[in-house]
């Protein structure tokens, strides 16, 4: 029996357009999800920043994303961006209400940080709101998720462990388009770390390990914690052995993945997933990843990279990196982490949640 096509709302980012011009993992997931579900024949409406690209219907939340505004502390309060973000979320709620009056949505996928504020609206509309767990759930959120019996979609299995009694859908790993990340069989002689520079990302460990191993390292990404950068990274950047490129565009990022002997992902906080890790694998680049969060669900020790828990562990991974087949690294990506696999899983979630709401 043929399944009916669903009317699906997707709450994208209020920070930057989808997909992002530079950094932004969530925005790429939203881009693939909206296009993929639309291509499967569903009636998809994407609520996102103006300028977002999609084959679905786009309803702009605002002309510019919250992160595209400059905060001048001498002229405005330090909470201005937070207040702007909350204003955009309120605007998104009003836009969903307007669109739902035209025709009821079967399901709403929420990718917005703070999107839990939409739960009362979803109850009013009698439409399930599925929160995609780009960030971990913390204890103070648990009561509201229980109150609304709100469905949560983990992007890695480890996310269910802290609060196992919440209402989880099946896990949906993030995915990317294989065509956008071509395989490279012959890398150059450098290691790569694409990241947001800060203590939780442990960027300094990559620097320390590459200096110990005597191999070149290229770092790219925005600086989250300036003090951390100034003490743990900048003193060792010489433009030769240790390079820092800043935030880079998509094409440059792919070329860096293709040319790297190995990708170093030393994040020490419980990373929900790790999109950069699968981007590296897609290009055939093995990943040396810290054994935390979602990383062990991506990196298979000795097969597509190495799992480590110290700087010395990273050094050992660097020395053994050529034992990993780049073809095996690509194959591990194709098996679990393509955008098509992700979209099909989101379709399954949409049908299951919509059916339960009837």
Layout: helices, strands, pairs:
Layout: E1 7-11, H1 25-39, E2 43-48, E3 57-60, H2 80-102, E4 107-110, H3 119-125, E5 129-132, H4 142-147, E6 152-153, E7 191-194, H5 203-213, E8 217-220, H6 226-233, E9 242-244, H7 250-259, E10 262-265, H8 275-282, E11 287-290, E12 305-308, H9 311-319, H10 326-336, H11 339-357
Parallel strand pairs: 1-2, 1-4, 2-3, 4-5, 5-6, 7-8, 7-10, 8-9, 10-11, 11-12
Which sequence of SSEs, written as H and E, runs from N to C? EHEEHEHEHEEHEHEHEHEEHHH
Helix content: 25-40%
* CATH level-1 class of the largest domain: Alpha Beta
Query: Which strand-content bin applies to the residues?
Result: 5-15%
Features of this protein?
single chain, 11 helices, Rossmann fold, 12 strands, 6-stranded parallel β-sheet, 2 domains
Task: Give your account of this protein's structure.
- By secondary structure, the chain is of the alpha/beta class.
- It has helices spanning 25-39, 80-102, 119-125, 142-147, 203-213, 226-233, 250-259, 275-282, 311-319, 326-336, 339-357; strands spanning 7-11, 43-48, 57-60, 107-110, 129-132, 152-153, 191-194, 217-220, 242-244, 262-265, 287-290, 305-308.
- The protein folds into two domains: 7-175 and 338-357, 3-Layer(aba) Sandwich (Rossmann fold); 178-336, Rossmann fold, CATH 3.40.50.2000.
- Helix content is 35%, strand content 13%.
- β10, α8 (275-282) and β11 form a beta-alpha-beta unit.
- The longest helix is centred in the first third of the chain and has 23 residues, at 80-102.
- The two termini are 18 Å apart.
- The model has no long low-confidence stretch (mean pLDDT 93).
């Amino acid at each position: 029996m043929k399944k009916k096509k669903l009317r699906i709302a997707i709450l994208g980012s209020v920070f930057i357009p989808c997909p992002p011009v530079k950094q932004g993992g969530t925005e790429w997931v939203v881009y693939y999800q909206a296009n993929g579900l639309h291509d499967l024949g569903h009636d998809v409406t994407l609520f996102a920043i103006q300028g977002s690209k999609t084959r679905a219907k786009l309803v702009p939340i605002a002309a510019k994303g919250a992160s595209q505004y400059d905060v001048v502390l001498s002229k405005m309060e330090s909470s201005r961006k937070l207040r702007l973000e909350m204003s955009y979320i309120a605007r998104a709620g009003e836009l969903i209400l307007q669109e739902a009056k035209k025709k009821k949505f079967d399901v709403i996928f929420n990718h917005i940080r703070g999107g839990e504020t939409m739960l009362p609206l979803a109850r009013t509309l009698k439409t399930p709101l599925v929160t995609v767990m780009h960030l971990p759930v913390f204890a103070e959120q648990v009561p509201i998720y229980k109150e609304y019996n709100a469905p949560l979609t983990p992007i890695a299995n480890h996310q269910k462990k802290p609060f196992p009694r919440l209402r989880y859908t099946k896990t949906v790993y993030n995915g990317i388009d294989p065509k956008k990340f071509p395989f490279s069989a012959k890398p150059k002689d450098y290691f790569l770390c694409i990241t947001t520079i800060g203590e939780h990302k442990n960027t300094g460990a990559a620097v320390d390990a590459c200096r110990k191993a005597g191999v070149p390292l290229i770092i790219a990404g925005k600086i989250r914690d300036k003090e951390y950068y100034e003490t743990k990274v900048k003193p060792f950047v010489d433009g030769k052995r240790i390079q820092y490129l800043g935030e880079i565009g998509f094409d440059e990022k792919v070329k860096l993945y293709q040319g790297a002997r190995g990708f170093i992902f030393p994040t020490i906080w419980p990373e929900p997933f790790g999109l950069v890790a699968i981007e590296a694998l897609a290009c055939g680049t093995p990943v040396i990843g810290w054994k935390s969060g979602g990383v062990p669900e991506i990196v298979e020790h000795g097969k597509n990279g190495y799992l480590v828990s110290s700087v010395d562990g990273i050094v050992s991974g660097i020395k053994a990196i050529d034992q990993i087949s780049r073809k095996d690294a690509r194959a591990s990506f194709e098996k679990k982490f393509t955008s098509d696999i992700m979209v099909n899983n989101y379709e399954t979630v949409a049908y299951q949640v919509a059916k339960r709401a009837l």
